[in-house]
């Protein structure tokens, strides 16, 4: 999802296949085997074919992809069901080890029900095109409990779990994790580093971690927090550089769960974060494909968080002037598509209005 791109940084250039190959090789050498992509991750499935499928024996890794039935992706049963065929063609994988109903939440669930996607993935499993099926989830524990009760044969669920969102009133990571545990459903963790924000947290948070272990990266604390949870099957880290890969492998190759003392450090870091008012955007870009004016919303919010965290308006305005080309925040037409697509349930329209007032 956040593979390295030619041009580096936040470039929107093509995926850098050679760097991706090097990352895949390092991952394999350290014993990693699980790779995650999706129908809507532009270029990612093709990159998986070139960097992974065409270079390693098919039985030597696990490949996951996803079907998204939401209205902003497709508007028909045939379109939704056709995504699996397209994903298999893009990856050349022959089958998916793990296949997910993507971004299940209150607004998208009716489409999965109406199109009978739950039955469809089971049919595809019977045909051998899917080995295990589950769903990724972006809503509250009440709905998760309802879905798992209705579909008790769910083989795994993918949840946003990180120490920042553990007690968050919107994401409700802990409560969702507890529902999955109650149903004894294995958990795949997404956003363990919250879109990279926990790899480079505010200074007061970083200071807490460095005081506890000067040699450990901030990302290591975030990923180990998620990996230490008993119900967790695998943690997905959206690594976009060889340096990030090397850091992650340094502490995950021989993984050690958090000690009780380290858990207390996490509690202190979470408390420090709660004292900072930031926009909880993870830069997933779900909001951007359907935006009628083509606004780069996550990039604008990233700039706003520079201002909110560090209070440096000059720096924020400078960054705003160098953001990817596209409409200004003030050019939002307030259609609401972005708020419907946002898995973090952010009040995107009002936040864009705030950005326009501060940065323009």
Measured by DSSP, the beta-strand proportion falls in 5-15%
CA-to-CA gap between the ends?
Answer: 30 Å
Number of strands: 7
Main β-sheet, spatial strand arrangement: 1-2-3-4-5-6-7
- Estimated structural class: alpha/beta
Report the mean per-residue pLDDT as an integer. 93
Biggest sheet features: 7 strands, parallel
- Determine Rg (CA atoms, Å): 20 Å
Helix content class: 40-55%
The DSSP helix count reads: 15
- Principal-axes geometry comes out as globular
Report low-confidence residues grouped into runs of 5 or more: none
Reading the helices and strands in chain order gives: HEHEHEHHEHEHEHHEHHHHHH
What would your notes on this structure say?
Strands 1-2-3-4-5-6-7 form a seven-stranded parallel sheet, covered by helices on one side. It contains 15 helices and seven strands. The chain has helices spanning 17-29, 44-53, 77-91, 109-114, 117-126, 141-150, 173-182, 203-212, 218-227, 242-252, 260-274, 297-310, 313-321, 337-341, 348-359, and strands at residues 34-36, 62-67, 96-104, 130-137, 156-160, 187-190, 232-235. The protein is an alpha/beta fold. α7 links the parallel β5 and β6 (187-190).
